[in-house]
Amino acid sequence: MHGLGNDYVYVNCFEEKIDDPAQLAKAVSNRHFAIGADGLILIGPSKKADVRMRIFNADGSEAEMCGNGIRCVAKYAYEHKLAQAGKPLSIPGQPPCQASLKIETPRGILTLGLIIDDNDNVQKVCVNMGQPILEAARIPVTIPAKNIIDQPMQFQSHAFLMTCVSMGNPHAVFFRDNIGPAELQKFGPVIEHHSIFPNRVNVHFVKINNSAEFTMGTWERGSGITLACGTGACAAAVAAAITDRCDRQVTAHLPGGDLELYWARDDNCVYMTGPAVEVFHGTWTDK
What we know:
Structural class: alpha+beta
Distance between the termini: 23 Å
CATH superfamily of the largest domain: Diaminopimelate Epimerase, Chain A, domain 1
Strand content: 35-45%
CATH topology of the largest domain: Diaminopimelate Epimerase, Chain A, domain 1
Largest sheet: 16 strands, mixed
């Protein structure tokens, strides 16, 4: 399944048992000798919510959260009847949702609204991504400052202004005109593995189009360049708002498509709406 081209292999752990998800993630994610994906997501039972998700990057490392992935988990859980959907949901700044689900993640339990078509298929999902974390120590970033907002930095002798946000996982946002894949390939791995990020970091180059939209490219921690990053788009929206570059309701243009984002004032939560698409299903056998 994919959300804006951010593709993962999903396993129904209501039916399957995975002994070594880190190794399986590396095996199935290989784009040349296997299925090919940005990583692996496990959908399993939860004692606290409707279902539980675990996310493993293509390198086998476990992630805290995936905004594009959780939309696909909601679609799968609803369409495969893994949970009883909740009542319709009204999410601030987002379209009406006909049903809802709660999903347990390493970041906590998130509420999702489902936009369903006439054939009872989920077309889009609205996610309450929770409150952004701006305190450097909690992101974490080891720079001695309370918040990292337009912080002057140098990477490979190039000057940058860096804003750091956590959406349950760490993000470094850089507002600049050149956001192409060559730039991400050059600086992404250097920034991801820099010593100031003890848990590594997701890297985003963002170009502001106007006060209501921006375009971004992403180097994802543990996966490299991806077509979309939901938590990263939320982090970029927060970074754009706190630096007065954009309004709190924006459209993020990613290589894989668009996300609608709204950072609400009343509850301080970021709301994200985007598609979820099933590509194919099959059976994986060890070789």
